[in-house]
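Known limitations

Files may contain more than one protein. Parsers should not assume a single record per file. Below, a two-record file is shown to illustrate correct handling: read the sequence, read the token line, then continue until end of file.
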Amino acid sequence: MAKLLKIWRLACMLFLFCFLFSACAVQGHQYWWDSFNCPTECVIKDLHGNIGGEPGRWMIANLILLPIAYAAAIIPIFQSSLQLWIGFRKQLVRNMRKDSVPFRILRMLYFLLFSHAFEMI
């Protein structure tokens, strides 16, 4: 029963992810904040070639952060995937020198992206 609930939760999360991802793409229209009187259908039809400006920058930020946040939420659902991630981290730490620049950058990104503070943002 627990495995079925985990799969159901994963399916619902992926479904919601697809909706949020498509909404973020539509939000990138350069006249998004000036088109309150226009239905979203008009904005979608006019989307090709009109992504840019401040809404476009927010769209890019959302499209980058959304998969990261969903991955951070999905990985702990299944114990085996969590163990793979922990094993990857241990192997990374073991194979890289601790004073190397790539190690410090990867360590900083790991702790930033998979911290609980980042999930609350």
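...continuing to the second record:
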Amino acid sequence: MISGIRCRRLGIQKLSPLSVDEYLQCLSKSQRLQDHLRVLEKNAEEISFYSRTQAIFDHTGYHGVADWAEKTSQTHEHILVTVGQVAFIGASLTYGAIFSSTRGNLGLMCYAFALFNCGFIVPTVALLLLQWASLRPREALFAAPQHWTVALNVFVYGSVAAVGAAICLLNVSLFVLHFPVGPDGQRMDAGLEFDIAPPPAGSLALVCLAVAVVATLVAGLFHYLANGWKLLVGDFVGSRRSQGHGFVDYVLA
């Protein structure tokens, strides 16, 4: 009897390594199966999303506002960032020159500062709106993308024109800089010129800021009117509804 028990124990010991290898092999297959199922589930979600938004794509060329924002960002982000950086540096230098300069046309510098402000505010707001739109729900309704694309292009090239005009005004301020000749026949230091009033330049910068604020409010209003005010509440609260597709009821044994 004792010898029989020993024989069975010896048999179990011989089979134990094989059983562990089989278990690890099964576990590896299970993990690969889970990875494969996750890929299939993701593909099923993509197919379901494209099928639900095919009508929107046929009408607008995009599968939703997020799709439009992502594609538009890819084509406009570089120029928006570049113009914004140039305008910010130009506005900083011009602002310092306005309050520390002892010569030159102060009015031209003020207008250059206002134009640099426009060239900075508009691209920054455009980038923020595109980033916000790209984070919208994928199936958010979207109408008339051509109008928004035209508006964006107007703002972008308007910003480029504003920065270019500001640089031109600074060059003009150098061109009109005059060093008078003194009684002794030597050149005297130029003084400040106030022939151009600065207040309208400040009004121009405020108008540019107001246009950016109005564009932001209009974009948000149209978005929530099309997709429901519950989405607005969800954005403020931070809630997100997720809808599963594919193998939601599948349990791996």
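Parsers that stop after the first record will miss the second one. For reference, the second record is described as follows. The mean pLDDT is 75.
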